[in-house]
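Something for you to look into today, if you have time. Could you write out one complete protein record for me, on any chain you like? The space below this message is yours for that.
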Amino acid sequence: MSQLFYTTFGGQRRQQGLSLIEVMVGMLIGLFILGGMVTLFFGNQQTYRYNEELSRLQENSRFATEILQRHLRMAGHVGCLTLQEINGGSPISKGESIVDSPQIQIEGMTAVQAFQYSAASPGVVGDAGKTAVLGSDVVTLRYGQGASTTLDTDTGVPTKTPSIVIRDNALGFKQGEVIVMADCKTAGLARISNTPASGNSVALEFKKATNYNLKDGFDGITFASDLRIMRMANVSFFIGPSTERITNRQGNAFNSLYLASEGFNGRAVADEIIEGVVDMVVEYGVPNASGSDEADAYKPLASITDWNDVRAVKVTLLLSSVDDKVVSDAQSVTFNGNTYTDHRMYTTVSTTVSLRRTF
């Protein structure tokens, strides 16, 4: 019996744990696996950010090109006439400005006109309460917007008429807006001085008043019954600091492309339309020989002496990702005499548009 107990007890094995070396090896393997997972996570995160910024940059480039082309193609449009044929007997003459309302900026009445921004001469940028990049071009385009309405009757408009009645106000004309009235013989400009109603048979008045018109009605102008009435667009493009997001994720300011337009009562309103537009270079196509219809050379703003000579406009934009640290290697990009060295993603886009016949 004693022998049996000894044999049974002596045959049992003692439970053993992991040695220190085994624990350390297991921890090391775990660290390798964890490190790989962390590396994979950050790698995927960086790839995601890269692809996201690339997609946004491509989208902004396409949108910038499209909106610039859209407005440039319309520059100078006033129906079947040209801007130079706007009659001086209009309540607003093309060579005059309205007292206390310089924002209208119709002096000269050319399809395209530009100036170099400065703090001393902010122009429409200052009127809109914005700032632009010092020394950059502010490009203004003028045209009658495509949608139009007609008269309520077929009798035309006799001279010195201070008001008209349009078929309907589906376009939503408002007090203070500048409209262009044109048939195929003459064209005129006026600012709406009353508050137009909605619906059909709506009266539009063009009476003399501060911030409205220089005279009552159209002096010496008679319009035919096929008269078209449309808004007069007076829009400007410029580059300025963002006022929406202000800074990026790294706390740095960045530039955007703005579109300014004349609002009601002559006040300019500027909208930030595309983020990350670093700079803009504008060149103006002019003919070598006077009277030529073709743009033979593209010149900067300082070389333009007569805006009626401009036949085409070439716009080149430098765009970047809004956020920094998108690419691993620092970029060195030179554009318009400036060099940018950071970790942003950059691209350039360019478009050239021939203007309508405005001469």
